[in-house]
Inverse folding.
């Protein structure tokens, strides 16, 4: 049989798109590689799913790269209130948290997956799981999709919603980008985004497991500060991770990572003079005690031994015996804890994919290919990516909706 529409990929974009498409009774087939839909959605927001961000279109676009304006008309058609209303209409209760981030009240991402899945089933979308599409061709007006077991599927309209390349274990392995390329489209270079850094040396490793809150992390190139973020980060067996590190990784994606330095300011609320005054006061008050007791006032316990080793001031040194130069070295360590960067971690640990299908080759209202008629793209397969905060899923939902609306309008389906 020839389906009206086949949607490849039962993720955030694909499920929303398929459900809306089938609302009017059209034959829609949704094909998914994995044995369950929404594998990635299930792990979003640490299992809680940060659905979107309750802020303005401008705020969303400010958080999106590289051509955020491309999404303007999609966001005018389907935005934050629409996706919230959608999930509420599916019986979910939605809540807003710090930073305008929106979550299901249950804190359970599976609820989001189930709601999208139910939406598809109730609208009679045919769903085929465990089906890995490996090639796509178009002859006359019909697309033919072949799966890894040599089965063929045919349709008049094809939607590619196969996601990016990050967390490949969830099923997104860059297949859609390969299909698009095989059909003559431009794929902008694919890179891991929102991803931890490997650092050079072993300083970070020696502090692995330590989490820092309210610190400033900045990226330096040729001794010049280029980006800065304030918040939480963590040391690991390979280097650094955590919210501010992931945000910084997106900003430096086009720079030579091995030439960059990460500097952590452990005391961002105090400038150098104020911190010097504070350290001097502590030294005066605890002159007869050991250096360790000063460090306890300034650092998390687990960092104390490393700080003493790095500064070459033994922990049992009596505070009165510490020189002015050593005191200065301590201040600089606290304000400028430096980690030369080696590289970013792989797609396996990246939250999103930078790069993808060039937005120059798709229509900004319907996301239909300008090269192959009746071929549509939605979600992370397109070269659009965002910061953390719910912005990435909004891209998937808005583009998924607009593709459905675009196909319905083009084929006069009300
Ligand atoms: C750990 C983690 C946490 C995240 N948390 C958040 C968050 O809280 N908020 C947020 O906004 N964003 C978050 N993101 C990003 C967000 O999950 C993605 O941007 C979003 O899921 C993209 O949706 P999509 O539908 O384009 O792709 P996906 O959700 O990846 O879905 C694509 C689907 O296509 C299927 N597929 C791929 N190739 C084929 C093929 N050849 N044949 C058949 N099926 C195929 C895949 O199996 C998959 O199910 C997170 C990402 C990760 C990895």
């Amino acid at each position: 049989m020839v389906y009206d529409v086949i949607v490849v990929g039962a993720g955030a974009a694909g499920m929303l798109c398929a459900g809306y498409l089938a609302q009017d009774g059209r034959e829609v087939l949704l094909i998914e590689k994995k044995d369950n839909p929404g594998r990635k959605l299930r792990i979003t927001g640490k299992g809680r799913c940060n659905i979107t961000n309750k802020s303005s279109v401008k705020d969303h676009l400010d958080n999106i790269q590289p051509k955020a304006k491309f999404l303007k008309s999609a966001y005018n058609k389907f935005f934050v209130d629409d996706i919230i209303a959608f999930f509420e209409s599916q019986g979910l209760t939605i809540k807003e948290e710090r930073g305008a981030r929106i979550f299901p009240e249950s804190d359970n991402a599976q609820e989001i997956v189930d709601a999208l899945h139910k939406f598809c089933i109730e609208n009679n979308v045919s769903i085929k799981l465990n089906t890995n599409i490996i090639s796509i061709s178009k002859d006359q007006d019909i697309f033919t999709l072949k799966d890894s077991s040599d089965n063929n599927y045919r349709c008049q309209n094809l939607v590619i919603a196969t996601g990016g390349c990050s967390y490949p274990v969830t099923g997104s392995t860059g297949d859609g980008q390969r299909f698009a390329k095989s059909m003559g489209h431009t794929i902008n270079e694919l890179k891991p985004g929102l991803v931890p850094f490997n650092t050079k040396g072993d300083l970070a490793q020696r502090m692995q497991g330590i989490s820092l809150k309210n610190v400033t992390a900045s990226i330096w190139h040729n001794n010049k500060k280029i980006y800065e973020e304030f918040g939480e980060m963590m040391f690991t067996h390979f280097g650094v991770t955590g919210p501010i590190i992931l945000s910084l990784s997106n900003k430096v994606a086009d720079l030579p990572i091995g030439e960059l330095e990460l500097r952590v300011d452990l005391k961002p609320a105090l400038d150098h003079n104020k911190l010097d005054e504070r350290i001097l006061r502590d030294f005066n008050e605890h002159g007869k005690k050991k250096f360790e007791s000063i460090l306890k006032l300034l650092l998390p316990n687990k960092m104390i031994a490393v700080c003493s080793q790095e500064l070459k001031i033994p922990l049992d040194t009596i505070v009165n015996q510490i020189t002015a130069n050593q005191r200065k070295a301590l201040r600089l360590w606290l304000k400028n804890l430096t980690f030369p960067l080696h590289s970013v971690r792989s797609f396996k640990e990246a939250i999103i994919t930078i790069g993808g299908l060039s937005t120059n080759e798709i229509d900004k209202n319907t996301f239909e290919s300008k090269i192959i008629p009746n071929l549509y793209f939605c979600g992370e397969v397109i070269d659009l990516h965002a910061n953390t905060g719910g912005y990435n899923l909004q891209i998937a939902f808005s583009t998924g909706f607009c593709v459905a609306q675009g196909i319905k309008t083009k084929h006069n389906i009300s």
